[in-house]
Amino acid sequence: MFLAHSATGRRWALVAGAAVLSGALLTGCSGGGTSSSGGHSTDTINYALPANFTPNWILPVGTASHLNTNNSSISQSLWEPLIAYDGSTGEVGWNKKNSLATAADFAKDSKSVTITLGNRHWSDGKPVTSRDVEFWFNLVKANKADWASYSPGKAPDNWTSLKIVDDTHFTIAFDKAYNQQWMLANELSMIRPMPQHVWDKTGDAGAVSDLDRTKAGAKKVWKYLNNAAKNISGYASDPLWKVVSGPYTLKSFSTAGRVELTANAKYDGGGKANIKHVNLLPFTTTDAEANALRAGTVDYGYINATDLSQEASFKSRGYTIKPWAGWAITYMPYNFNNPAMGAVFKQLYARQAIQMSVDQTSLSKVVFNGTAVPTYGPIPQGQASDFVSPEQKNNPYPFDTAKAKKLLTSHGWTERNGTMVCTDAGSGDDQCGSGVAKGTKFEMHVLSQSGSTVTDNMMSALQSSFSKTGIKFSIKTAPVNSVLSQTGQCKSADPGCKWQLSFFGTAGSWYFPAYPSGDSLFQTGGGSNFGSYSNPEVDKLITQTTTSDSTAAVQKYSAALAKDLPVIWLPEPDYQVSVVKNGLGGFAQDSLANFHPAMWKWTDN
């Protein structure tokens, strides 16, 4: 949650038992693999997917309900990005081995870029050309409102044209000069060339043509592809998904979440698969997955941060513990349009009282066992960078429930039976605020991801600290995909606008591209601005981060949102505490939260 990237660019990262092994393997994992505690197969690897998570999207253009890192990782193994930005080599940058483009030459005025494609082919033998990029461009431009990575004013709005020079060169013009680093890492990296000669149609029996070159045609093609992508059980058999450009092809994809990849024999890129068969295994809980690790049926898995004391036990079974740090932030978005609490959330003093009731230091040390760091704003703080402002670093709202309670009582709230109630409605400085009705109770409800003991413990700790401020906090849990689908952007009158707070970030809520701008997250109308946060001044700052080459622009943005609190900031944990079979190497754990199976290899064989 890149997070994220969706299946295109930015990501949500989503991670989280059975008491005995037999129950764990039956209910938690939909299938075993070929590895065992006695060794491993040289051409197979079993990778554990995050707990209580099932991959549910294959199309390399993400929609809001399908935002997750693992969908993206699977998709990128089948259809390589134009420009693959990742940290799989140990530092974040352009990974040209797994990219379809070989060069991106910006004009001197930074108002356009000319891209060069490599001599690459689809698995059916047809060449990958500029036309395949144009196909993606036309679909996204005509259906931008449905594209999860869309933010008004950003791609594709700020791409005024795409002109094909020849089969391997094309030029994208911009509406103005942009920060080249941001444009390359955050926008151009979202482009996913797709097989126009196979996908440019409106039905299974339809003929392929140039339908995408008209807006009406592009909408029809989009609808056809999205409908096909909803048929998860048909992924492995549908001819649509057989033509790929990446190092792997799809062998099977079950609705229960098990995915099998096999090496693409026709792949002609630089990032060829080292291991032929990759089994991606689903689990209902982290405990179930840990039991599978103990049984030796998982080669690359994870444990809860609370289980780090068991490191010696896993080492004795032939594993190495490798914490996976992420370039991410973690938070709970407010629904500013919720009919019951939206007006309260819109009051800055109320958000300040809520934030002061979150003890990030204790949560990081106790709940996450030291594998998380407090985060006080929109820029990752787990890794050193020049992007974090002093205001964010210094935490403008330290934990203090007594001060938080006083802040509420000074704004027209009175504690009754342990819960604050608005007793002085109005818009004055010492009143509850505009739109907050007299008698409103300060009661918040969160829909939180299930399947993670760490998340459950954090929610319980928050419930306790909120109660000291006089804020009632109730918790409901659901699988990750359900949480995401139930907490989208909405208007107050919409039936689906009843959610108040949402949490899906056990392993980080949002994984950034290399350049941590907030256009999708916090800009008015941003594609992943789930809570409908809107601040015109912040919009201006976000725009500056995309056009200025100076880190000062990002720092101003960092300071503004550290103070304005568009969400509840929470500790940023490691993506996961990985448990890796000895002998498995060839890669670094990508801080952008993608996994890269083509890079994995058994080094002791």
From TrEMBL:
According to the entry, every stretch annotated as the Solute-binding protein family domain falls at: 99-527
The reply on keyword Signal is yes
The record's annotation in CDD domains points to: PBP2_thermophilic_Hb8_like
Q: Where in the cell is it found?
A: Cell envelope
Signal peptide stretch:
1-18
Q: What Gene3D superfamilies does the record tag this protein with?
A: Dipeptide-binding Protein, Domain 3, Periplasmic binding protein-like II
Question: What SUPFAM superfamilies does the record tag this protein with?
Answer: Periplasmic binding protein-like II
Recite the UniProt keywords alphabetically.
Signal, Transport
What family does the Swiss-Prot or TrEMBL record give for this protein? Belongs to the bacterial solute-binding protein 5 family.
Q: What is this protein called?
A: Peptide ABC transporter substrate-binding protein
Organism for this UniProt entry: Streptomyces cuspidosporus
